[in-house]
Amino acid sequence: MRYQISGKQIDIGEALQTHVETEVDELMAKYAQRPTDAQVVFSRDAHHHVCEATVHLSSGLTVQARGQANEIYNAFESCAERMDKQLRRYKRRLKDHYKDRRSPVEFAGAPSYILAAEDAVNGDEPDSLQPMIIAEMETRIPSISVGEAVMQMELGQSDVLVFRNERHGKINVVHRRNDGNIGWIDPD
């Protein structure tokens, strides 16, 4: 597994890197059979240390967790605890969904844009209905089932996931509703 362990404006020592690699290896061996890479970023937020970890699995799932504490090792332990809890919660579903899958999840590329927020001054109408694009990126869209999409959204701690439904090949969306339930958009 490839590791990318870094710090934002803080120095990460060799001992911390070794500790992170060992702990993540143990965690992945416990729940996930085929991790491909892990990115762990340490930063400071006022007097707290923050650890954000993202682990990509060959099955197409991405697991994300965040932890913070007064000390850097405790921040990582908090992050690892949250990741362990997520993986433990989905362990049965991970095994059930991927036992019949013969090949890794396929991804399609799609353009992704960040639009500038329009500030309506005194309720005035904007001059143009064309939004201003401030960033353009490439996004990966997985070809997975609806159940896998819901699980990916939960593991990635996001509110929305766009995916290609592997049953019929069309683009679908799952999202977290305001009432806490999950919504699924499957256009004709």
TrEMBL record:
Q: Does the keyword Secreted apply?
A: no
Q: Name one GO cellular component term.
A: cytosolic small ribosomal subunit
One molecular function GO term is: ribosomal small subunit binding
- Domain (Sigma 54 modulation/S30EA ribosomal protein C-terminal): residue spans on this chain: 130-183
Which is a GO BP term held by this UniProt record?
negative regulation of translational elongation
Q: Which keywords are on file for this protein?
A: Cytoplasm, Translation regulation
Q: Name one Pfam family in it.
A: Ribosom_S30AE_C
Q: State the source organism's domain of life.
A: Bacteria
The record's annotation in InterPro entries points to: HPF/YfiA_ribosome-assoc (IPR050574), HPF_long/plastid (IPR034694), RHF-like (IPR036567), RHF/RaiA (IPR003489), Ribosom_S30AE_C (IPR032528), Ribosom_S30AE_C_sf (IPR038416)
CDD domains in the cross-refs: RaiA
| Localization | Cytoplasm
Signal peptide coordinates = none
Principal subcellular localisation of the protein? cytoplasm
Q: Report the function annotation for this chain.
A: Required for dimerization of active 70S ribosomes into 100S ribosomes in stationary phase; 100S ribosomes are translationally inactive and sometimes present during exponential growth.
Q: How does it assemble?
A: Associates exclusively with 100S ribosomes, which are dimers of 70S ribosomes.
What's this protein's family per the entry?
Answer: Belongs to the HPF/YfiA ribosome-associated protein family. Long HPF subfamily.
Q: What protein am I looking at? A: Ribosome hibernation promoting factor
